[in-house]
Amino acid sequence: MSARQSEASVRGQRARWTVVRGSASPRRSWVYRVVAIVAVIAGSAIYLGLTIHQPDILGVVLRESFATPASLDEWVVLATPFFLTALAVLIPLRVGLWNIGGEGHFFGGAWLATGLAFWLGHLTGAVLIPGMLVAGALGGALWAAIPALARVYLNVNEIISTLMLNLVMVFWVAYWLVGSWQYGGSTGGTLQSRIIPTQSQLPLLHVAGGLDSGLVIALVITALVGLYLHFSTFGYQSLLVGSGRAVALYTGVRIRRVQMISMLGAGALAGIAGVLQLAGNSYQLTPGLSNNTGYLGIAVAILAGNSVWGLVVMAGLLSTIMLVGQNVQMYGVSSDAPFIVIGVLLLLNAVGDALSQYRLIRVERGASATPVGDDFVESEGHSVAGSGAVEIEPVHNVLRVD
């Protein structure tokens, strides 16, 4: 045996496998996320097969959910607002803020757009529909400005303020629905506005049986926002602010300005989602205009992992879960089933994000593993604790922007 082979053999005997913790890896996070999705889908399918005693129940449910134009149209209705309400969460998350107010921004935009439709109902659709979209963005942004100003200048927790203002906006909408906007034919405790003018309703794009143009608008806006965040100065500044106050101050970024723009933009996007739901599906302003759309947008944003393109995939996934959940209710499955599935998916996703910080590596005794980005390097001359733990040395003055 040569001297080099003998040395390698000794080093191999001294080396050992150990678990080390470093920075979270987006690549590994997505691997765990895909595993979680597959596990939840498989578990849900097994549950349906065991509880519903009907031959080929999975095939029946899938056909009922996707094989007819009506079912596809329902999927489009569910998916359209998710893209924008999820963006309303994802953008503030980039700067370290949690916007839980998507539901309030949603109704704020729908409320102002409804008022504009009634006030300018004599205009043509080519003028009225763009005006309603602008009004929806303005309504959502104005409602988001309240918690944004409180957070930026008074350090009020934005989670609490945005959540509480959701309820305020719902009651504000209800106030108008018992007044001049009330639908004359409503009965009992149902609250709904008059039907908005025909020219203010979004047209259908007749592709494979009819496609809501609201989905096209939502996808175009999502793509434009994704490109803007990726290539613009503001997108880079938002990542710096999210990396930490010290990093942002060192690079000269105006933190308050970036935070305000993020919250106002989030409110505007959720407000547009309210307009698309109003003008593309409901045609009336009601407290039931949103089917927990703002809150489900939070789940979409979390599962997207700070990726606008991942957001598109997750919005489609959650829409599918909600649609299948509606269809299996006729077989006796609880209406809460889709929310249980989404909750389990979020739990497994959180576990996966935590696991993505750990790696199994092979190090020599007497060496320490030092994290550098997603990788680990060994450095000689550092003692190892008697318990066998590996000492991890922090790396300072290194900025990583994914």
What does this structure look like?
The chain has 14 helices and six strands. With 402 residues, the protein is mainly alpha-helical. The chain folds into two domains: 1-23 and 361-402, no CATH class; 67-310, ABC transporter involved in vitamin B12 uptake, BtuC. Strands 1-4 form a two-stranded antiparallel ribbon. Strand 2 and strand 3 form a beta hairpin. Helix 6 packs antiparallel against helix 11 (255-282) and helix 8 (213-231) packs antiparallel against helix 11. The longest helix is centred in the middle third of the chain and has 30 residues, at 125-154. The radius of gyration is 26 Å and the shape is globular. It starts with a helix and ends in a 23-residue tail after the last strand. Residues 377-402 have low confidence and may be disordered.
Q: N-to-C terminal Cα separation, in Å? A: 47 Å
Structural class, by secondary structure, is: mainly alpha
* Low-pLDDT residue intervals, each spanning 5 or more residues: 377-402
Tally of individual domains: 2
Specify the CATH class of the largest domain. Mainly Alpha
* Count of separate DSSP helical elements: 14
What's the CATH topology name of the largest domain? ABC transporter involved in vitamin B12 uptake, BtuC
What order do the helices and strands follow?
HEHHHHHHEEHHHHHHHEEE
The average pLDDT value, as a whole number, equals 83
Strand order, sheet with most strands: 1-4
Main sheet: strands, sense, barrel: 2 strands, antiparallel
Radius of gyration from CA coordinates: 26 Å
DSSP strand (E) fraction?
5-15%
Based on CA inertia axes, which overall geometry fits? globular
Residues in helices, as a percent range: 55-70%
Instruction: Name the assembly state.
Output: single chain
Extended strand count: 6
- Give the CATH architecture of the largest domain: Orthogonal Bundle
